[in-house]
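A reminder from the course coordinator: this example appears on the midterm review sheet, so study it carefully.

Given structure:
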């Protein structure tokens, strides 16, 4: 692993953890905390629902980013190679087709990132032009197990941060949420002012 890969990994991990903490902070307001203290089943259901939403959001976003990065890398390679291509080559046609099918290519690359790594070539979008283009460039689009598991770790870290911070808020604010708030008595008016 090179230094840039480590920096990107750590940055993405920190962002996913902060997203989980933000979700916990927004959810655990005083009224909701009182409700969750009295309704543990609702708390578990909320944890499950928000945890699933966080995992889906983080995993989907990181895989989509990886798919767009793949598209940019290949586009940059076409931009470098095309000016030096000899006449009669098939590369200009491929470069034009690559540019014209940007959305479909990113979608196919994203679908391949979402799926668990497999041997062989798979095309999920059923778009033959896109499948031929992606096979023709010679770069693997699918993830390896190491990359795939790191993308899963981002999603799980967001969920764990959400659960830990939510529980910490519930435990540390229990006394504040359950104590009866007594309004201070008003001071009697002084007779000297009259």
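Designed residues:
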């Amino acid at each position: 692993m090179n230094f840039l890969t480590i920096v990107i990994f750590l940055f993405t991990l920190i962002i996913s953890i902060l997203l989980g903490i933000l979700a916990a902070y927004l959810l655990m307001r005083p009224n909701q905390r009182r409700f969750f203290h009295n309704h543990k089943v609702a708390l578990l259901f909320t944890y499950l629902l928000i945890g699933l939403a966080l995992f889906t959001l983080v995993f989907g976003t990181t895989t989509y980013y990886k798919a767009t990065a793949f598209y940019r890398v290949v586009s940059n390679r076409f931009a470098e190679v095309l000016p030096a291509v000899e006449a009669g080559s098939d590369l200009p046609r491929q470069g034009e087709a690559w540019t014209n099918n940007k959305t479909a290519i990113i979608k196919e690359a994203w679908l391949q990132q979402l799926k668990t790594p497999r041997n062989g070539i798979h095309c999920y979008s059923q778009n033959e032009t896109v499948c031929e283009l992606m096979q023709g460039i010679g770069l693997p689009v699918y993830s390896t197990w190491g990359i795939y598991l790191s993308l899963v770790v981002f999603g799980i870290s967001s969920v764990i941060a959400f659960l830990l911070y939510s529980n910490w808020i519930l435990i540390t604010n229990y006394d504040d949420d359950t104590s009866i708030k007594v309004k201070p008595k008003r001071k009697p008016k002084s007779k000297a002012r009259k």
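The chain has one domain: 13-177. The chain is about 75% helix and 0% strand.
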